[in-house]
Amino acid sequence: MRSVIDIRELSVEEIDGLVATAMDIIENPAKYSEACKGKKLATLFFEPSTRTRLSFEAAMYELGGNVLSMASASSSSATKGESVADTAKVISCYADIIAMRHPKEGAPLVAAMNASIPVINAGDGGHNHPTQTLADLLTIHREKGRFNNLTVGFCGDLKFGRTVHSLISALARYEGIKVVLISPDELKLPGYIKKDVMDKAGMAYEETADLMAVMPQLDILYMTRVQGERFFNEEDYLRLRDSYILTPDKLKDAKKDLAILHPLPRVNEIAVAIDDDPRACYFKQVLNGKYMRMALILKLLGITV
Ligand code: CP
């Protein structure tokens, strides 16, 4: 029985395997339509979500399985004080696999330590979001055909953006990756990721506040929302939230084959006018997330098709 809490728990070979399964699902969906017949996924979301919860649920339905859904903490016995550990033990009596989102870093790990079924971290606080990373990786694979030799710009809230932390951790295992960290001073990438992940891997990186200055070198631009829900101070959030707004004029020096990613939801970071640009990949990324979650559910349930 295996859980996935951090993207680094999946080896490069396993990620290649998940990408291959996702590509096969895309090409042969009918082959997978009963793969999880009789299995149940429980989605336990203690924090709001549109994409992650619904794509997990769509993934399980498309595999022929069923879903038990807890869409908010307020509708659960967490409001009565039930612990994450007890919740995990209880849900293990009903379901075959859990996808859990929680505002507290480490909560899905606690669930995994207490559940008797696999637990997938669907986002924990500002820490990690491994299945968003799987969506990002499939998007990079489909747009670029490789994970090596890419210059990837991360722009916006690099401090609280858990999708950024996870994707950098995943990319650190590939050759020839350069990361460009674009943020205001207050929203810089946490030091522990630079030290424990990037420095350890010998990953090349630069930090800047100037998106336009680095735009020409980027193969991928990963835009992010400023995470208002993680600020302690409303005033700081209001001051920083519109630090970067990608508009068509800002792409004038960008590569013709730049891929623009965003984990969504977007607020103001990408003008709607960019959506029709062939370089905008963020809605493709949403769909890729469903395929990778299908592949991961199959892997953790030990089902081969
Ligand atoms: N990308 C992402 O995690 O979106 P949701 O918060 O809507 O799940």
Written overview of the protein:
This protein has 305 residues and is α/β, with parallel strands linked by helices. The protein has two domains: 7-128 and 289-300, Aspartate/ornithine carbamoyltransferase (Rossmann fold, 3-Layer(aba) Sandwich); 130-285, Rossmann fold (3-Layer(aba) Sandwich), CATH 3.40.50.1370. Helix content is 36%, strand content 15%. It has ten helices and nine strands. The chain has helices at residues 12-27, 51-62, 84-91, 107-114, 130-144, 162-171, 191-201, 211-214, 234-240, 282-300, and strands at 40-45, 66-70, 97-102, 119-124, 150-155, 177-182, 204-208, 220-223, 259-261. Helix 6 (162-171) links the parallel strand 5 and strand 6 (177-182). The longest helix is centred in the last third of the chain and has 19 residues, at 282-300. The protein is globular, with a radius of gyration of 19 Å. Bound molecules: phosphoric acid mono(formamide)ester. Phosphoric acid mono(formamide)ester binds at residues 49-52, 123, 132, 263-265.
